[in-house]
Design a protein that fits this description.
three-stranded antiparallel beta sheet, mainly alpha
Length: about 250
């Protein structure tokens, strides 16, 4: 079954906000020079922080609106929230509690280390920029999830059902539909979201990993399962996707 419309819309809105923020981050990072600290402290760092905080505030507000919508769509009781977060509470803070400003400086530090090891400045900056956008993308996703969980708890919904936001990797696909009482584990870059639920309805909100895999074309299936051999084993021999994904992960760990 498809996830609720409200969940799909929420995931799409978060993705759009994240794409816009990361595009701004990339533009700001492109102004870095070989005087790393001067460029970062002068214009680049403040612009990167501003884009990230703006996105964090936006997705937190989206989560606040999303929770009562998805509860109503799935036929659950929509209670008034017992508390409300302070506006802007997430902006500037990463999921692990670090300040976004100091976390983002890691891109500069990595570029410095690369240059010190003999890497050319443009190459080092390109690698630092890739790390920066990947890291800040995770910060924005974490903010959306954290705000959604807090809003769910405020409305007395203790459980979460894991939902994919395709395209998804095999690690996420085989976990689709799992229920949790606490935040689910994720890998860097994971953008899965959760559907708030009470125990009485969580079983009706499952998203089926096999249904998702069956909807993929050959190329997408091979990418999801790790190889064309795995895709063939799944399609032609009814291979267990859990074993295929976990065996492939173990091979490359």
């Amino acid at each position: 079954m498809l996830p609720p419309r409200a969940s799909r819309r929420f995931a799409a809105e978060v993705r759009r906000e994240k794409r816009a923020a990361l595009a701004s981050v990339r533009r700001s990072w492109s102004r870095m020079t070989d005087d790393f600290d001067a460029a970062w402290e002068g214009a680049v760092g403040p612009a990167v922080l501003a884009a990230t905080v703006q996105a964090q505030d936006a997705v937190a507000d989206m989560a606040r609106l999303y929770v009562p919508e998805v509860l109503a769509e799935t036929g659950q009781v929509v209670r008034d929230a017992s508390w409300a977060p302070v506006p802007g509470a997430w902006g500037g803070t990463a999921g692990d509690g670090r300040a976004v400003q100091s976390l983002a400086y890691g891109a500069v530090a990595r570029a410095k280390v690369a240059v010190g090891s003999g890497t050319a400045v443009p190459v080092a900056l390109r690698a630092g920029g890739q790390w920066l956008t990947r890291t800040l993308g995770t910060v924005i996703d974490d903010t959306a999830r954290s705000a959604e969980r807090l809003e769910s708890q405020a409305r007395h919904k203790p459980m979460y059902v894991r939902m994919l936001t395709p395209p998804s990797c095999g690690r996420c696909i085989i976990l689709a539909g799992r229920t949790y009482y606490t935040a689910f584990e994720r890998h860097p870059g994971c953008d899965c979201v959760s559907i708030p639920a009470s125990e009485s309805v969580a079983g009706d909100l499952l998203t089926d990993p096999r249904a998702h895999l069956d909807s993929l074309d050959d190329d997408a299936l091979a990418k999801a399962l790790g190889s064309r051999a795995n895709a063939k084993a799944y399609r032609e021999f009814d291979g267990d996707p859990y074993q295929l994904v976990n065996a492939y992960r173990a091979r490359w760990t």
